[in-house]
Amino acid sequence: MASTKFILGMRDAFFNALYEFFKRDPEAVFISADNGAPTLDQFYQNLPNQYFNVGIAEQQLIGMACGMALEGKKVYTYAIAPFVTIRCYEQTKLDVCAMNLPITCIGVGAGYAYDIMGPTHHTVEDLTVMRALPNMTVHSPADAYCAEALAEISYRNPSPQYIRFDRAGVPEIYGEGHFNFADGVLLTRPGGSIALVATGIMVHQALKVADELAKAGVQARVIDLCRIKPVNTKRLFEYLKGVNRVVSMEEHFLAGGLGSLLAEIFVDNDVRLPLLRIGQDDRYVFDNGGREVIWEKYGLDVRSMTDRILRWAK
Amino acid sequence: MQPKQQNALEEKALWVRSKVLDMAVYAKSGHISSAFSQTELLVALYHGRLMNYDPKNRRWEGRDRFILSKGQGGIGLYPVLADAGFFPLAELDNFAGRDSLLGVHAEHHIPGMEILSGSLGHGLPVATGVAQTGLLRKKDWMVICLLGDAELAEGSNWEAAFFAGSKHLSNLVCIVDRNGGGVTGFTDRIEFPCDGPRMNPLDKKFEAFGFEVRTIDGHDFGQIFAALGDLRQRQNKPPLMIIANTHKGKGTSIMEDKRLWHYRVPAGADLAIARADLGLQPLPVNDRPVNVEQGE
User: Fold this and answer.
1) Domains of chain A, earliest start first
2) Does A65 touch chain B (CB under 8 A)?
3) pTM for the model
4) Taken in order A301, A182, A125, A221, is the CA torsion positive or negative?
5) Residue A109 C-alpha, separation from nearest chain B C-alpha, in angstroms
6) Cβ A91–B156 below 8 Å, yes or no?
7) CB contact, 8 Å: B135 with chain A?
């Protein structure tokens, strides 16, 4: 995996691309709840009338975004993922989704990205709650190329959106080849009779698990569900053609997350494929030591997931 | 204010209260006491033309934006909007009924409404976003946000006040309907555990957040006009906070400043008293009171 184009990671790839739209559109505004990024400096330095900081006040963040969107602004809101989602959830429900306004909510630190920060900063329920809201589009990119593409995709979409980013340092996946991110689902690696469907950081884990499975003689394909809502079921089923087992992999609570979502889609479409859901059980994580420690302890590391899939698929 | 104009506004206020009572009795639902505390404020804004609006062009760019934060006050706003021409008066007769335009909480699809209301603590943050946009575009329209006082226990209001004060949102005018009552108790008359939390000193709180505060009698048209008369001459001033001291259930002896009337519709003898207080003809009375618990 070459890691040269986006040194700063997916969030900054997104902001740099978004900046180009902001330069051309004075009606686009960015509101931060006192959260920064190296690539955000250009917004407030060069576009002072398009950048606002409400302080650490997420209800105000979303409420103010609503007021500006009502007046015709294209609004982006930004904070650490747990705070921009569940902290101000009712504002998102009523002030954004129920009024169907062009507000894109950016959350950084998906899953256990803020590993040693504890459950306050872990974001392992956002997919469940954000996809529950009518009118909402939810994106969960796996690398900076996908994130960069989301700048234009979000800018062109006049509806409520939520985009969750990982922290910096996530390697690139989609530098080579042609991937249509607007599809919302990507066949990251083709082949095999087992499909590993993942989102966000877990796409990287899925690729490693596929490598390990191959060593054990089991071929698996990897599908990246980078858009959680609305799911492009047509394309998903196309990518699932020929598989006889499906594994969902998420760094997220199992309740209502990616695996739940696949189960819903399968039931609703009479798809009868065995589905193994890998994710976080019903628990808060207080373990220190880093993300890989969390993965090891809770079965989200490559070894554990590979062994589990091999046992299940035997 | 000319006595003639004052009389006309007072008559209108009485008509609004009568309509609200009819609507609530019809629907067996509605926040009458909340609507009665805000009546003169709304009549002054709309009929008194303190606000710029055009019912024939409800999205007119130059209109003043009225943000109803105390969404349960919708029942009291509907007669005012209908009378101003935003929608037919006949809509009032089917309040909250099947296919009605008008629900218990005022919603953004109703002509004259800017936002979805009903959950408290949403109006002021939204109003700051509207006001900020108006200043960015150098517009001279105003943003007028009507809040309940018990609603101020919602922390989101203070997040918004923090922002509004520090950003000097001079085009933002907040009016607190200071009726002193919440759902179960009083805000500053602490007699039982259901009372509180205390709001006072409310003026000092908002002054500390950077607002210019004016305290008035919210049922006195003279004071309302005096407090709101200079709205368009306040460039470069701090946001304005009008604390309008009012009485919950104003105008009806059974409800005025009484407990348990936040979300209760009178029937039987209570209704007869309320109608008599408003100068209305007696109706055939029902045999038992409607008493619906909960709701904001």
Assistant:
1) 10-165 (3.40.50.970), 182-313 (3.40.50.920)
2) yes
3) 0.95
4) negative
5) 24
6) yes
7) no
